[in-house]
Amino acid sequence: MIELAVYGEPVPAGRPRFTRQGHAFDPKRSRDYKKLVSEAAALQYHGELLHGIPLKVDVKVYRHVQSSVSKVERAKRLSGKHRPIVKP
């Protein structure tokens, strides 16, 4: 089993944009996060590339508690009693 850790606030993938010539590109924020993930994987994994084998991927995402929630809700989230399940 291979485990990789990427530290930093997760960024949702932005919608690709297109130039007048039809060339597609990622928004800067998405592009920077993809680069961060790629660099973290390159630093942590030194084995050979995985070609032609089935993969199973488990992703665990940890986000900070937003400052816009009430004190009661913040206490619940910090204690682990409530885990918000919303899109970022």
Q: How many β-strand runs? A: 2
Task: Give Rg in angstroms.
Answer: 18 Å
- What is the overall pLDDT average? 87
The CA-CA distance between the termini, in Å, is 29 Å
| Uncertain residue ranges | none
Query: How much strand?
Result: under 5%
Count of individual helical segments: 2
Percent of residues in helices: 25-40%
* Structural shape: flat
SSE ordering: EEHH
What structural class do you assign from the helix and strand content?
mainly alpha
* Biggest sheet architecture: 2 strands, antiparallel
Enumerate the strands of the largest sheet in spatial order, edge to edge or round the barrel. Answer: 1-2
